[in-house]
Amino acid sequence: MITPSHDDGPVEAPESGAAFGQEWPRRVAILGVGLLGGSVALAVRRIRPQTTFIGYSRTPGKLDQALGLGVIDQTSDSIAEACRDCDVVVVATPVDRIAPLVVEAAGASPPTCLITDVGSTKAKILADVAKHPQAARKFVAAHPIAGSEKSGNQHAVADLLDGKIVVLTANTATDPAWLARAERFWTLTGGSTCWMSGEDHDAHLAAISHVPHLVSALVARMVPPQARSLVGSGWRDITRVAAGDPEMWTAICQENRQAICQELQRLSEELTRLQQIISQSQDEALTQWLGEAKRVKEQS
Amino acid sequence: MITPSHDDGPVEAPESGAAFGQEWPRRVAILGVGLLGGSVALAVRRIRPQTTFIGYSRTPGKLDQALGLGVIDQTSDSIAEACRDCDVVVVATPVDRIAPLVVEAAGASPPTCLITDVGSTKAKILADVAKHPQAARKFVAAHPIAGSEKSGNQHAVADLLDGKIVVLTANTATDPAWLARAERFWTLTGGSTCWMSGEDHDAHLAAISHVPHLVSALVARMVPPQARSLVGSGWRDITRVAAGDPEMWTAICQENRQAICQELQRLSEELTRLQQIISQSQDEALTQWLGEAKRVKEQS
Asked: B39, B165, B273, B278: best mutation site toward chain A, by most A Cβ within 10 Å?
């Protein structure tokens, strides 16, 4: 038995011969070194200064930038090389490219390596990876609920995940020893972990993130050109996330299409009800409707 | 002729015998001493420290609080007494009570007194005041596009209007000399004035403020209870204004019902189009749709 580390993370039975204490993880590959991947590296580095972070990206310029900024320690132009000899691989690409990279990383990494991700959608990624039992065994999906409308590793910060929820999810093909390993790794980032099924995650995220993002973009699109100079702080806050990357959000809609469509339908029905309340001058009902929104907001 | 004051505000011909320089306004009544009314007083006080601010409210507790905080210098429990001998009266109540207070203040104030307001809607207030020619002559409507989801004079701050747009509007019954007076007063708050018809104001504000507010409340209302702990910074920004006062926003919907209904209809049609794009997997169209939102956001 090894001694549990000093932090409050869960204790797990170690694999035979594997060191799993203060030195873990020795090497971490970050596949896709953007805002989130970079922030994960910077976050873990705070309490694991000896860990080596290896970055991989399809775009060499991003890798050079991350190296120059000290976000990663080494670069690699091959996934196989990046993952070789790693304890953890974090796949931090747009969601539509996560599953194939997880499968590739699982094949290229040591048998005890944890493969995890940062994707905003989960069910389809888990289902795609489940078709590859060797990969599914090593994969615990993760979604750190943290981000920014900015993108790129030049915006990565060490405290991005501090106190933020990290949703963890796995399927039945995942080896149980990997669940504790994932919990341990994500606790090292400063985040607070919780477990959920991929389906629940995707339904909840459609309601609290994906559809709100689309609504923010909708509000932005509706400004008449001649009224742009009049926008105030309310509009600016509502539309902040509308500056997010269109391709990244298209990929999220692809991956979570069903839950997003259901949630858009629910939104549409609620909007119709609001239109009736206002057009029929049901002012008391409107005050109640707004009051309920205020209560939810103040409790969240 | 008097010498124009040192600031860059417009120069106007003075009324016979009226001092209209550094000493103006000597006395300002604030009818409704909340976040906005209080902030106007604090703002003007910065460059007119000798000006006396008299507060009136239906709620004595709010007045005592404003006096205690130094937001106003005197209190009054009567509109007639508050407005007597004032150079400016600012009506800063919820929008549904502005027009009758403007009429009452116009009757109770000296002949040269400017009556102005801070309402988020304009056309109906102007139309209601226009039925009273003596009041309409002295009234220039104003909407400082500044605020907060907070309310109450304890949140009033001197710089709330700094650099913010103040939309000014008047109708044909307004005496032209009052237009420059209104411009002068609102420039003293730190705001930047612009002129617009009441109808244009209301249509623009429905698009950039009133309907976005309703949408923010809609997003807040749609959080499933079990997902509340997962909300992130995007959701928090989108729903910030949903914490606003339900009665104040009901009054805004009452006063600007027609423009808001039109804008909600436009929103509903755009939402239907978005639902089609996503449900039919038109991913290229979705990227373009999101890209247009990003462009508008970044230009605003």
From this structure: B278
